[in-house]
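LAB NOTEBOOK - FOLDING QUEUE
OPERATOR: T.R.
BATCH SIZE: 2
PURPOSE: Compare the predicted structure-token outputs for two unrelated chains run back to back under identical settings.
PRIORITY: normal
REVIEWER: second-year student, initials M.K.

ITEM 1
FIELD SEQUENCE / FIELD STRUCTURE:
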Amino acid sequence: MNIHPLKFLITLIPIALLAGCGGGSDCYYNMDSYGSVSSARVFYPCGMENSSELHHVTTLSGGLSNTKENMYWLAGHLVENNDMVVFAISASSNTSVGNYERAHKSAVEMIESERNNPASPLYLRLDKLALMGYSMGGGAVLNAAHDLGSEVDAVVAMAPWEPSVFLGDVTADTLAIVGENDIVASPAYAEGAYGNLPDGINKAFMKLDNFGHLQWVGNTGSSTNTVAAKQMISAWVDYNLNGSGSALNSLLNPPSAVKVNENNL
């Protein structure tokens, strides 16, 4: 397990009664508020509690005015295609990068608590940790990765809004991905983040053809650019957390909807 033990005692966080299946291979349960997280839905591969297999885990958030529901499309995709556990979160305050940064850090504490909770289907079954966020949440995961250091193994920042320029000591392998038509979170933010990351990690900056800011919210479409976004995020996880050679090939030879692909892989 690459999530380092917390330096203080975390009490077990109560799980809400609602649980179910997402219609495919993903099951879920809801969690109450904790720290800077107002609510969370935990997506996981159905039946993992009956297996000793370890699963990678990620936080996931939207951005300004968003809630966890806006990112369920990606949570389900990651469970079904990457066999991941996903903590989709709503921030207690969703109006700034700083608030989202605190929410992701709270979610990391929630993950550690569930890993050590004998009543949780995740008990002792979590492996490497990723952080994923969109817009303000995208800037937040970059900043959180800077603060959390080696606790974090991979980062996906989607259309990141105003991340810190102080990213030179980030140790997590990081993908910054944005749409070329984004007039809210300019592609310059993502490219600037890529440039500020150290050369000693796997990192990439990708720009999607004909893709705007709001296409990341509830992205359930089947257009070539929305499919490419999901493919590249899945490949990033698979390569950097599992060492998949085929995923590396996908990242180095992305679909045509990826118009810019700068990387250090």
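ITEM 2
FIELD SEQUENCE / FIELD STRUCTURE:
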Amino acid sequence: MPSLRAMNALHPTLFLVLALTAVIALPGCGAMQRHYEAGLILADIRAGEADSRWKRTRPAPERETVEYTGPTGVPRVADLYTPGDEVRSNLVLVHGFTEAGRRDPRLVQFAKTLSRAGFRVLAPEVETLTRMDVSPENIRDVVDAAHWLDARDDGEGVGVAAMSFSVATAVLAALEEDGRPHIGWIVGVGGYYDLVETLTYVTTGYFTEDGERRYQIPRVEGRWVVLLTQLDRVPDADDRRLLDRIARERLADPEAETGPLAERLSPPGRAVYALLTNRDPDRVPDLLAALPDGVRDEIKALNLANRDLSRLQAYLLLVHGRDDDVIPWTQSQALKQAAPRGQAELRLVTGLTHVDVDPGVVGAWRLLRAVNRLLLLRDDPPPTPSSANEP
């Protein structure tokens, strides 16, 4: 049991959560230890690079750069974080949209936090994500990483942790014939199921809950980030340059006047711009139909709503913020419902704005339960069916 002095060093909200945890978890020592670890992990995530009890009491992991090829034969590079003590599980950690890629300071700190918990963490460099480009190619990045990491151990399967738009990539990787035997479970934070509905929310703020249309103010930067992810699929080079300039000017200043730039776009470029500046949810289907073929094909390829998830064998631990202003929480709910029965769980959290954490007491308690479930997956992962048992 932690000392009262040690617990008081934590954030006040987490102190209360840990105090409740200590009472609730008394019947099982292993469960109590996981709950306590979960609280220290949350406090360490909140601390970032600053000192924390987690850093002081757990040996620092070793990081090395590794190069490998997976089933595709494509050369890959990644950072491998090895715990300073026992390796208890293997985890592929996928970075998001960041020019720093696997060396983004936030990802590095998160990887170290997880490695201190006994995870051997592989953080692959996903080149397309470093240039704000989400692509079906990312599926192979995840498959190759899982294949390589699983081969280092006993072949019992690995976990994959992904955030935001990369959650769908992880699920699609687990559906791949050569990914299915290696990906045992997925932790997805702030992901989507139906990409069309997600784009409707990003651009208009409207989403569907229990069959009713609802509105929530979306993050203004969201639409322009989405534009940057699709630039490579716009056929005309001049359009790509103009749209890139529009997106970056609006990201720097949401009130920037970009109308004159938009007037210089060709019809395909103008179709992309029309979707991203639209505010009417009823127009979205027609605007999507008018997009260039490459952009439409990309949306179709990355849309989980088009896939048969009954073949999914990886267990899903989904975490989503009720206050998410980029992807509505109903998307993770829809993903849970589409997964095979009993194979997914959803933890809804207040104070989690997309992937930024600032919970109150209730939110911290729910986050702690989500981290506790991650630690349970570490200690008792679901079995990964062998290829011989695959349908």
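REVIEWER COMMENT (ITEM 2): The radius of gyration is 21 Å.
FOLLOW-UP: none requested
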